[in-house]
Amino acid sequence: MTVRNRGALAALAAGVAALTVAALVACGSQPAGNVGADEATALASTPPAVASGPTVPVTAGELPADAKIVPPVRLVIPEIGVTATVNAVGINEKTNEFEVPPSVDQIGWYRHGPGLEADAGSVVIAGHVDSAKQGKGAFFRLRELDQGDTVTATGSDGEARLYRVVAREEYDKTRIPLDRYFARDGKPRLTLITCGGPFDAKARKYRDNIVVTAVPA
């Protein structure tokens, strides 16, 4: 991951990707409240700091140069009816945004971070909550996940890996601690991100991000 890419994830501070949601005014029912925030924080090797701007800070952990990366290719979340294709994505060079797949029924794995084989760090997968033209996205019901729910991520190696949800948090996009969620160090974990909160029709974006953290079951 280059320094340029570390500073290019404006989408997570200004919206996960450029969502086409102009006709929508809300994001469905709101979550019951944050759960497991302390447990999610403890997974990081260092205390997270609130991001001061739309960047992903440099983290201490680095991927081994000779590591065989196993990208996730399929995600199943029975509790909210998700079975979605996962695409490897990076940063849109023109917009400097996290490039979530344009089809809202598909989701994107941040390919500059750890893969499913990693024994440390955060595997980040982001998806649309909805679209004015396409309707509900794969992560439309992400806000409903609770502690103990399960997520199965299948890698390109064909192995299905089971995760257990430990936290669900909601942040104003200007205050999401990106260093925690994009870290390559700390305990292995799966980080799922989508938009949430009220929709600003004038700005054409949601105010918040919903973040779900899961650990190997």
Describe the structure concisely for a colleague.
The protein is 8% helix and 33% strand.
Protein described:
The chain has a single domain (37-41, 69-216), classed as Beta Barrel (Sortase, Chain: A), CATH 2.40.260. Strand 1 and strand 2 form a beta hairpin. 8% of the residues lie in helices and 33% in strands. The strands form two sheets. Strands 1-2-3-4-9-10-8-7 form an eight-stranded mixed barrel. A two-stranded antiparallel sheet has the order 5-6. The protein has four helices and ten strands. It comes from Micromonospora taraxaci.
Mean residue pLDDT: 80
The tally of beta strands, per DSSP, is: 10
SS field, number of helical segments: 4
Number of domains: 1
What proportion strand?
25-35%
> What is the SS-derived class?
mainly beta
Helix content: under 10%
Keywords: Hydrolase, Signal
GO molecular function: hydrolase activity
Pfam families: Sortase
Signal peptide: 1-22
From the structure above, extract its key features.
single chain, globular, 8-stranded mixed barrel, Sortase, Chain: A, mainly beta, two-stranded antiparallel ribbon, 10 strands, 217 residues
Layout of SSEs?
Layout: H1 3-6, H2 11-14, H3 37-42, E1 72-77, E2 82-89, E3 107-110, E4 122-127, E5 130-131, E6 135-136, E7 150-155, E8 160-172, H4 178-181, E9 189-200, E10 205-216
Parallel strand pairs: 2-3, 4-9
Antiparallel strand pairs: 1-2, 1-7, 3-4, 5-6, 7-8, 8-10, 9-10
